[in-house]
Amino acid sequence: MQRTLFTQDHQDFRLLVREFLTREVVPVYEAWRHAGLVPRELFTSLGKLGIIGTSLPEEFGGGGQDDYRYNVVIQEECARACVTLGGLRTHLDVVLPYFTAFASAEQRARWFPGLASGELYTAIAMSEPGTGSDLAGVATTAVRDGDHYILAGSKTFITGGHHADLVIVVARTSTDPDNRRGGLSLLVVEKGMPGFTVGRKLEKIGLTTQDTVELSFADVRVPAANLLGAEGSAFSLLGRNLAQERLAIAVGAVAQARAAIEMTITYVRDRKVFGKPVAHFQNTKFELAAMSAELEAAQALLDASITALVEGELSGVDAARTKLFCTEALGRVVDRCLQLHGGYGYILEYPIARLYADARVSRIYGGTSEVMKSIISKSLGL
Questions:
Q1: Buried/exposed 244-263: b ≥16 CB within 10 Å, e otherwise
Q2: Closest Cα to residue 91, out of 16, 190, 166, 196?
Q3: Residue 80 φ/ψ, nearest 5 degrees
Q4: Is 245 tagged catalytic?
């Protein structure tokens, strides 16, 4: 189906991203995958091309384009090339919006030039070993001590934490027995602060170039000037970007499903079984036809949601519907595409195997499919 989501500026940006991936990433991606990490220099290279700072104000060296569709282009092109650029999606779609929305004038002057150039890279630390998705149960504390907070605790499952120069940490600055959600604040911890330690890199089934680490804070003295937003307002601030965070996962899901179908079509045309291409069998045709129809339905829903987000009208419920449908569709598509590859589909040399492993987490992070169903059911009065 014809998409009407993008302007010529977006398509020009798409060519820039595609050329960069083809020239700088694809030839060395296997080495990155085996290393389990992308090089830190990747983000400064993206900064020099203007790819990483599109949403930041021009006065700080950014692109001045507060348009989520540029982030969509980056995800689509990475999926097309079958690569992941570490925690870049989290940096752009999840973390930067907190800086652009809540940073003070002084914080903007201090951090935005580096964020625009790629010299500063970010992560957000919410999950803890004992709390999981229950943000109200955060145990990390930050006690005010003059012009500083004394930060103590630990975090886990932190995407981009290995390379991050700035980490937004959710910490409890006060306790209210009657309101577990109250008393949480956002503190920006900077790499190199005494007591701040990056722990082990967690090994995952997929997304192998995306560093996912544990972080610990042993009485880290964080300047009060690094408080993001008002003290005690973290829970409400974190909720404001949830729709975009979940939509970003859906964007990746649909782009990866499209890549899986396209690579499978190429494979079944070339692969011969019983003397003829796999593409000639009716089952192959029917499977790919069904997947194509499901993909177009997911794309239509996704594009409508992206349009709503750009116009400031995307609700949390519609974001949940979109994430649920698109990620579940991705799971079905990559499974069927791998099946059509036969035994080769299980070999990591083939991109479909990596896509299969990468896809599974989309139904977990950003809110599980079960959480999405709970949100949707509440909107139905159930």
A1: bbbbbbbbbbbbbbbbbbeb
A2: 166
A3: -60, -40
A4: yes
Q: What single string gives the DSSP state of each residue in 247-261?
A: HHHHHHHHHHHHHHH
Q: Residues near 262 by Cβ (< 8 Å), separated by ≥ 6?
A: none
- Name the catalytic one among 76, 214, 245, 287: 245
Q: Which residue, among 212, 192, 217, has the nearest Cα to 140 in the 3D structure?
A: 217
Rounded to an integer, the average pLDDT of 317-346 is 98
Rounded-to-5 percentages of helix, strand, coil across the chain: 55, 15, 30
Query: In the structure encoding, which two tokens stand for residue 78, read together?
Result: 């990475």
Q: What is the pLDDT of residues 211-253, one digit of tens each?
A: 999 999 999 999 999 999 999 999 999 988 999 999 999 999 9
- Say which residue the tokens 């005494």 belong to: 194
Measure CA 77 to chain center. 14
Q: What is the DSSP string of 332-347?
A: HHHHHHHHHHGGGGGS
pTM, rounded to two decimals: 0.94
What is the token pair recorded at 303? 């594009």
